[in-house]
Amino acid sequence: MEEVFLRAVYFGTPLLLATLGALLGERAGVVNLGVEGMMALSALAAFAVAQGSGNLLLASLAAAAVGAGLGLFHALVTVTLRANAFVAGLALAMAGVGAAGLLGKRYEGLPLFLTAREEVFALASVALSVLLYLLLYKTRPGLYLRSVGENPKAVDLFGGSVAGLRYLALGLGGGLIGLAGADLSLAYRPSWADGLTAGLGWVAVALVIFVGWHPLRAVLGAWFFGLLFFLQFRLQGSVPIPPEAFAAMPYALVILVLALSGRGRAPKALGVPYERER
Amino acid sequence: MRRLAFGLLLALGLALAQTDKLKACFIYVGPIGDIGWTHAHDQARKKAEAALPWLETKYVESVPEAQVVPVIDRLVGEGCRVIFATSFGYMDGVLEAARKHPDVIFGHASGFKRAPNVMTYMADFYQVYYLNGLMAGALTKTGKVGYVGAFPIPEVKRHINAFALGVRAVNPKASVYVKWINAWFDPAKAREATEALMSQGADVFAFTEDTPTVVQTAARKGKYSFSHYSPMLKFAPDHVVSGQLVHWEAIYIDFLKKVKEGVYTSKNLQDVDYFWLLKEGAVELGADYGVPINPKHVSLLKAARMKVGGKEVPVYDRVMALLKDMSSQAPTFDPFTGPLKDRKGVVRIPAGRKASLQELLTMEWAAPGVVGDWPGEPK
Is A167 on the interface with B (CB under 8 A)? Predict the structure, then answer.
């Protein structure tokens, strides 16, 4: 029983970090479908630095920096250049995965002898969820950040910088997504291969909606997905339920929750580029 | 204008004809940088090119199975005279393209449909899996050996069965617990399937998946494993015992030589099937090239004993003896020698004969000792 819980947590950890990252950007009103590509590139960065320096902290920081950089790039494209966030995000996801595959060729098949502990990432991810909750709900910058996702015009009228807040949210969020990548290539499966993220970024995109854009619910949501993922293998062969049913369950649940909730809890200005009226 | 173009084409054609090189092209389903199937084919392509001075090669990677025909058309247009398609799912596309291009020679890896200009080939691991099974049977303390399987198709089932027969030959009470991940490449699924097997008590692991995930996951908890396809010793130097390695170049070089010599043409491949094993050097037993058994585990395997024809022998000696026998020109031993029953007690191979190639290629039954879901299991 205890190990079932541990698997749920450990598999859920990269999901949680990526979900928090995407959630932060969406709270500020910018949809981020680029998570998969951001995770892939930061996972590669983490592995490359760890392989070169043997320093896991440095490797994690490098991953966070790459993630943050990509988040800021997404902000540049969507906030400053006002590109459609959905299209830009899709492009980021595909280009990121492709670029990681290309750049990572020389790291494939290499072992990593110094590997990070999954417990550290798990604990850090929970701490970050709480911090993010406190930031969003208990501080003035958090209030501004949430407002920018609900009513950017109001923030603008009160003298807040809509663009600045969105850059901040996407940059910080990108850093969190970068840590998710680091967890994958340093702890969850310490090596690099093209396709390492295997769709986890997309699950995170769905999870943001599933947990209703709330950082504390994200913890439970990610662990719940982790639990379902592990159970499809643990129960295979011991119960008459086909394993495909478990494999499909997370997605079926997302659809169910979406159907029930509509877009009720989504930030009101989500996906709408802000344009100041003249 | 048209005359000029025609003249240029003619000149180009003459120039190509004069080089007298055989152009062989390879179509891969995955990226050449995976640590498994496609990587192994590409290594073999390079070795063939190095070994045959008259050979010129080209490859296209990550070709989705539904798009093989247009890719073949393009390659034919670029002058490829021999085309190797290296995924089971290319099978019908290859046959369609072969009808369109009757003068081009095709090779299809792991398939079973042939044509006058389509041959099939496979470097198969079942003998090597049996040897790994012997070692796994000697090393398990819980009597539970874990197997992470890619897809429940005859090829993978054949390998698990051979492995389980080996495990049971050493330890008649042991079982092989199988989990399917329904993917050739998915580290996350391989990881969780291994964790699930460990939580059910498995302490030795083998697998079919194109990454070292199972090896790494098992080693974290100090469990033994057998690497698959590529040398994975470096990923867990203390815990990888042995494994199976492939040498596709053995097949490529032999076939291309015969094409060059005119033995094989686009008219006579209907019955050409390379199902190459240890004897032909298409596969190797090993944790790494030239390392059949990790030296760290040799003493354990020498201490473990098994019964062979009523006599007690060290497992290590048995593995080495069988490896030598099956690598020789006239092997006397084969894992699938009757009488063999499946796990339900039905006789699958009668006493006194070996499984036929047809029986090997269509194997759906599960060997005794195999535990777990087995989609497609015959009644």
Answer: no
